[in-house]
Amino acid sequence: MADSLAVQISASAPTVDRIVRPRHGALVRVTHWITTLSFLALLLTGVEILMSHPRFYWGETGNINTAPLFQLPIPSSRDTVPTGYDYVLPDQNGWSRYLHFQSGWVLVWTGLVYVAFGFLSGHFRRSLFPARAELSPKAFSSAVARHLIFRRSREEEASSYNMLQRLTYLLVIFILFPVVVWTGLAMSPAIASAIPQAVTVLGGQQSARTIHFFVSVLLAIFLLVHIAMVCLAGFRKRVGAMITGGARD
Amino acid sequence: MRNLSRRRLITTGLAATAGAGGLAAAAKLAKQYGLIPPDGGGVYGPGETLTYVAQRLLTRHSLAREFSRTQISKSPFANEVVPLGESFHRLQTGGFANWRLAVDGMVARPGSLLIDQIKSFPSRSQITLVACEEGWSYIAEWIGVPLAHILDVVGALPEARYVVYRSIQSDWWESIDMADALHPQTLVTYGMNGGDLPIPFGGPLRLRVPRQLGYKSVKYITSLTVTDSLKRFGKGLGSASPEGGYAWYAGI
Fold this sequence. Notes:
Chain A has helices at about 1-10, 15-20, 25-50, 95-120, 125-130, 135-150, 165-185, 190-195, 195-200, 205-245, and strands at about 55, 70. By secondary structure, chain A is mostly helical. Chain A has a two-stranded antiparallel ribbon.
């Protein structure tokens, strides 16, 4: 079996690389789906926790006796919060908090493994860091223009990421996820006691909570756009490639 | 399956074995050092244990942030106060002069302390943040006696590992480990913002644990039990919170 496969591969020597190297490496695939699961759990439980106090503040403190920065127009799971709705949702904070932190741990460890792998294996250099030429204003604007008119990806982009994808993934991996973890930890009174600067540079514990919310919204938007782009590019093929690896096409 | 070479299979197998072995060793170490929280069983056990271990490694001696007098919240929020019952109101009529804090368990001199005795101990005040798990918060000055001093007065035994504390509201009881119980900012408070501790905020007596969320700062406390195991209390999960679905360790 293995022998006949080897014969096949050597028989078509120029395409060896295409057949042997999957579109996505095993570690990228595994960390992608673990991150997906933990992120969905974090998003769901985050919304549940948020509903116990859908008001946001800036600075160190805020409660229903102080003016909010803004309040989401949703009902609450606490009858102490004035929402304008005449009903109170059931309290889901207990299990939501348990699952939020457990998923947070999974996300952080998975992210660390992925980032370490990305640097060591050359995955970031090869697939995510844009080439200097791509960052010139001319190349950048032409990439944006092509994206906006939904031009089908050029030949070389079919098997790698275009510049906009690269920048978006880098933003998510190196800015949005680290900031959402940081602002989450900054809400912890125990972490604040050990590393007070983690809170003070953000402007206070309530500021950390507000930033945590906005970055989570950005991550949710990324998820939606990511799924939309996968659908445009061919849902079965792209999702299949992220599961099995998929040969380079 | 075309990529599955023998070498890769062996590497993956070794990595998985090392990972599983590492996890088992970590769990054993955590247990040996008493770093498994009382609600560390069940599906959320791994996450809770990781959180508790990380916090104890990072924050055993750290001090909660203290604020300046100008940062004290002008409109703190006491949260809902459920009806306190007849025995509370009887004590309230007497100006809480007969409010007692019973101390028992692994102590050399069990007994109970009247509020005036507690007030005669050296006091400490701190301006700290109360953060509720729901998301709101306020800053207030808290005045009271370090719990460590009371444990010293009653002679807590060296084997002690946890302090269980109960409210006059019978369904509200909590516990903390000795790292928090002996922490200099963990106070048995009777004053707030320069005055007596108002009833909605937990008066006459509230245990303040400023490195954890508000629900660990139990209002209207009436008793402390020093113990080396939480198994015998309630359902053995450490406090009323896990019995109601909330985490025992509330540092985050």
